[in-house]
Automatic annotation (TrEMBL):
This is Citrate synthase. One of its GO terms (molecular function) is citrate synthase activity. The active site is at 270, 327. Keywords: Transferase, Tricarboxylic acid cycle. Belongs to the citrate synthase family. Pfam families: Citrate_synt. It comes from Virgisporangium aliadipatigenens. It catalyses: oxaloacetate + acetyl-CoA + H2O = citrate + CoA + H(+). InterPro entries: Citrate_synth-like_lrg_a-sub, Citrate_synth-like_sm_a-sub, Citrate_synthase, Citrate_synthase_AS, Citrate_synthase_bac-typ, Citrate_synthase_sf, Citrate_synthase_typ-I.
Length: 392
């Protein structure tokens, strides 16, 4: 079968062609379908960006309206699916609850499982966009013992999610427009990032012709890891540890540089960016704005800025081109909005959802797609003869 190239972690291997997202890691450039991320973050809504990623062009007002109405039509969860939440332990992390519920969508929507039927793929697309925020808020309500709220489709996508998460029955819930706008913008920043670990997982699972729900559920599980989406939770826990006095900023940085097992500067470094992550620059500014506009102050924000300043002046980080990534400042905003630490990675999943869907759809339509099946470099025993049990 010819020579095999060894590339652990696919550092140099392109697994596909894609027309969705462009990154120039040296220049710190990120574009969705050609549009720079800063323009989209400032001017476009999350549903608009979802449409752009999935269908390739910005929607007209009529197209966006139609898309948004279709999504709203599917925001409720099947009552039987709602009961799934009863079975999880109360202290369960919401990420595996989310991936389990997304996986279960394949059992409820058997009319949307055929990857080669465009209408079915469209149904699965709309159902996922509609139901994942409901699932996410139910996972949260379960963890705090509050009743789950049905969606309110008079609200926008993000406002509805905020109400389902923070609202309680029989009490009007006022969506804070600052929180709504900033969360929408954060979802835009997370919406796609080409062939990252979870997206590659979604494509790999889909390459076996597994359905969209199954593929996205696998993506959620890949995102859970602390080197990927789980980093936003890990950053906050790192800052809390320093704040509690487990370490000073200096002693913590020393441990990182000494490569103590398991100690990294979480929220720093990136496989592709060897320059400031353009998303992190936008998030840092938003964190400062949100804190001042919500009249919140957080000593953890000062700690984060101190860590960044020290790291960016330290040869260890400079020589390795380690800069803050998107996860470094997001947790501080989520915290100021009232989300518990455990929900941070779920928020990343809500944002990344349209990217997973767009990439899966591109994969299934690409005639070059083959089942993902990497090779290996075998390092085990050469052939040897079986030894009978009594002779071992
Ligand atoms: N703290 C300390 N050292 C680091 C860090 C860090 N955060 N990141 C990389 N390094 C060092 C690493 O030890 C290695 O040093 P050496 O050359 O001496 O062996 C060098 O920098 C190159 O790093 P690498 O591990 O080969 O890089 P990678 O491309 O395999 O890993 C990464 C990328 C993001 C997994 C890694 O930078 C990391 O673990 N960062 C912390 C976790 C994190 O913030 N993840 C979020 C990524 S961004 C968005 C997302 O996916 O959520």
């Amino acid at each position: 079968t010819g020579a095999v190239t060894y590339d652990a972690g696919f550092v140099n291997t392109a697994s596909c062609k894609s027309a969705i997202t462009f990154i120039d890691g040296d220049e710190g450039i990120l574009r969705y379908r050609g549009y720079p991320i800063d323009q989209l973050a400032e001017k476009a809504s999350f549903l608009e960006v979802s449409y752009l990623l999935i269908y390739g062009e910005l929607p007209t007002a009529a197209q966006l309206d139609e898309f948004s109405t279709r999504v709203k039509h599917h925001t409720m969860l099947h009552e039987e699916l709602r009961r799934f939440f009863d079975g999880f332990p109360r202290d369960a992390h919401p990420m595996p609850v989310l991936s389990s519920a997304v996986s279960a969508l394949s059992t409820f929507y058997q009319d949307a499982l055929n990857p080669f039927d465009d209408e079915q793929v469209e149904m699965a697309t709309v159902r996922l966009l509609a139901k994942v925020p409901t699932i996410a808020s139910y996972a949260y309500k379960k963890s705090i013992g509050q009743p789950m709220l049905y969606p309110d489709n008079s609200l926008g996508y993000v406002a509805n999610f905020l109400r389902m998460t923070f609202g309680v029955p029989a009490t009007p819930y006022e969506v804070d427009p600052v929180v709504e706008k900033v969360l929408d913008m954060l979802f835009v920043l997370h919406a796609d990032h080409e062939q990252n670990c979870s997206t590659s997982t979604v494509r790999l699972v889909g390459s076996s012709h597994a359905n969209l729900f199954a593929s996205v559920s696998a993506g959620v599980n890949a995102l859970f890891g602390p080197l990927h989406g789980g980093a936003n939770q890990a950053v906050l826990e790192m800052l809390q540890g320093i704040h509690k006095g487990d370490d000073t900023v200096e002693s913590f940085v020393r441990k990182v540089k000494d490569k103590e097992p398991g100690v990294k500067l979480m929220g720093f470094g990136h496989r592709v960016y060897k320059n400031y992550d353009p998303r992190a620059a936008i998030v840092k500014k938003a964190a400062q704005d949100v804190m001042s506009r919500m009249n919140a102050s957080d000593p953890l924000l000062d700690l984060a800025m101190q860590l960044e300043e020290i790291a960016l002046a330290d040869d260890y980080f400079v020589s390795r081109k380690l800069y803050p990534n998107v996860d470094f400042y997001t947790g501080l905003i989520y915290k100021a909005m009232g989300f518990p630490t455990k929900m941070f990675t779920v928020l990343f999943a809500l944002g990344r959802l349209p990217g997973w869907i767009a990439q899966w759809r591109e994969m299934i339509k690409d005639e070059d797609t083959k089942i993902g099946r990497p090779r290996q470099v075998y390092t085990g025993q050469a052939e040897r003869t079986f030894v009978a049990m009594g002779e071992r």
